[in-house]
Amino acid sequence: MKIDLTETNSSKINAALVQARRDIGTPAIGMVLTLVIVTDEENAYDALKSANDASHEHPSRILVVIKRVSRSPRSRRDARLDAEVRVGADAGSGETVVLRLHGELVDHAQSVVLPLLLPDAPVVVWWPEGAPTDLAGDPLGALGQRRITDTYSCEDPVEALAGRAASYAPGDTDLSWTRITPWRSMLAAALDQQNVTVVSAHVEGEDDNPSCELLAMWLGDRLEVPVKRTVSAGPGLTSVRLTTKEGEILLGRADGSLATLCMPGQPDRAVALKRRDTAELLAEELRRLDPDNTYESALKFGVATLEAEQPSAAAAPAETPAAQSQPAAKPAAKPAAKAAAKKAPAKQ
Length: 348
Hints:
Low-confidence stretches: 306-348
Distance between the termini: 37 Å
Radius of gyration: 23 Å
Helix content: 25-40%
Largest sheet: 8 strands, mixed
Strand order of the largest sheet: 1-4-5-3-2-6-7-8
């Protein structure tokens, strides 16, 4: 069921939601959170489709905030709110409200969203593109316990990672980090099986791919070893090599779906490591609402290193080290199996 409301307000939208639930015979609210999507008209369809797919695992009230920038000075002064209410089959496993803000209302989106939040339920704010620099300081971001971005959509992902580290607040996360959860889990499991000491690491993947940078940062932070970042044709991450005194541990994925894990003294094995779509990534992030300390540690470790290595990266673009040297303040490298056991991935 779809209900269009023109020149409306939050009170009328809430009344329309209640009436729509009664009309389709589901007066009770069975949703577990409110997902606020801040986007534009161009990306609204894809973002809403992903959110609806994720709602089958996490029934949610989805609020899509679309800021319509007015062209003329007169129209910029005229505040107007148009809304589209969707329930039932048109709204996944929850209910959806598409909010189009016009005029001066664009600068006060939080005043429209606040009355529509589910009572006593967590709030997650997601920017598919065009996220603000300071997520927690943004008026809409301040409403959420979790704030999700995607640096892969930024024009300069590495610079965006530096900005995320500078303004990080507990609850911030990034879908570029979520993309490497299977890689982190596989590498941690491989090190748990090998009583070896990692002396260096090598991450290979597409240029300007923030997931590759984040994986290199995580390895440098967790294992405290030099990590080299090199560029390949992709797609995405293509290989990770961990050099040990006993041999090399290699996790390679050339086609974007099936990977090969090679370890010293063991036969090579094929492992499923497909590239996941946005709905799967979003569903994973909605499973946890506590701060991701592992992401914070990797993000802050890697950004400082990347900034220190930017001059040499310009001189050799094919090889951008993510962590050329071990920080002086950190102790010597610890055995990899113990490091992986103590600091396993936060998200499985």
